[in-house]
Amino acid sequence: MKLSAADTKRFLRDPKTDAAGFLVYGPDPLLVTYGRDRIIRSLLESDSNAAFERVSAEQVGNNRDFLATMIKSQGFFAQRRVVCIDGAGEGMVQAVSQALELRGDEDGWLLLTAGQLRPASKLRKLFESSACAAALPIYDASYSPNEVREALAVAGLRQVNHEAMNDLIALGRNFAPPLFAQTVEKLSLYKMGDETPVMPEEVRECAPADEEIQLDELLAQVTAQRTENIPLSLRQVIGQGESPVTILILTQRRFRSLLMVASDPDGPVAGIRRLRPPVFGARQKQMIQSASRWGVRGARSALRHLVHTDRLVRSAGRVPAFAMTEGVLMRLSLMQLK
Asked: Tell me, what's the pLDDT at 135?
């Protein structure tokens, strides 16, 4: 089943569980992870006995029967499995095809994630042409103004001051979807039993500003190569509940932005104006300085280190995720750039 990017946005607001398999793909790892987690939560909620199991692409290998066995097997308490594979590739098309073909109504589900896939991708074509599986391209999970109003209505927030609504629309456009959903939920609890309209100061009270500031500060320390400040900033961010994987994904996103700005043929100032979501104020000046510092070669080298560490941290084996994350950030801060 082929879904458009707009259909995917609607699907992820309320994922359906009647498909046998799901392929979530797109250029932004954070958004792909968000889509994957939304589907996992929906599947686990649909069956209280369901169990989640992560499988690496290496485990699948050339074994055509591996995935079919995984989704058909059940635990001691007749548990159906949500079998998840991050970083899926073309080499597992036959195994995935066989698993979907043999899967019965009472069997588990298959959930794959991937980066950007071309229209000619065999994996993408398999899910798009399947009657029992869905291909979900995720390029932009931000909320449109109408979607912001729908989310507020669902949360019982039907009276909103005009300025507060503008603030919420801006948050929906620029915040990661989990952060915006968290803001709406906090606002709903904050206004419980209060019949007065939502005001701008109440939106600011409920927005997760402190967490954003701490995380942005960590990324600023890394790109500015302030080595001595990184360990403390990292521990503050980890202490607020951010996982090493999320930190690695966001750091990759920051360096991809730096690469876009640094490689713009019209210069960094023109490059930063083309960034989406846009960057304003002091952050704009800071990013231009960072792009000039790192340059194209430095930003690409940083991304190679980050991608390699991200794959190791997400691997099926036991690894010291926090130590590896700290290690790669320190390595970036000590790189010789020019």
From this structure: 92
Backbone angles phi, psi at 84, to 5 degrees: -115, 135
Burial 68-80 (b: 16+ CB within 10 A, else e): bebbbeeeeeebb
Q: What is the pLDDT of residue 281?
A: 58
- Helix spans in the chain (H): 5-13, 29-46, 57-60, 66-72, 93-102, 122-129, 145-154, 162-174, 177-190, 200-206, 209-223, 230-239, 244-263, 268-273, 281-313, 321-333
* Angle 307-310-315 from CA coordinates, rounded to 5°: 125
CA distance 51 to 47: 9
Question: Do residues 288 and 307 make contact, with C-beta atoms less than 8 angstroms apart?
Answer: no
Are the C-beta atoms of residues 133 and 110 closer than 8 Å to each other? yes
CA distance 93 to 90: 6
Give phi and psi for 302, each to the nearest 5. Answer: -60, -40
User: Residue 126 corresponds to which tokens in the numbers above?
Assistant: 């398999």
237: number of Cβ within 10 Å: 23
User: Residue 159's pLDDT is what?
Assistant: 92
Q: What is the CB neighbour count within 10 angstroms for residue 18?
A: 8
Q: Are 152 and 160 in contact (CB under 8 A)?
A: yes
Instruction: With a cut of 50, list the residues of the chain below it in pLDDT.
Output: 210-211
pLDDT score, position 276: 65
Residues in the chain, how many?
338
pLDDT, residue 18, reads 84
| pLDDT computed for residue 167 by the predictor | 86
Per-residue pLDDT, 196? 92
**Residue 170: Cβ within 10 Å count:** 14
CB atoms within 10 A of CB 201: 11
SS (H, E, C) 265-308: CCCHHHHHHCCCCCCCHHHHHHHHHHHHHHHHHHHHHHHHHHHH
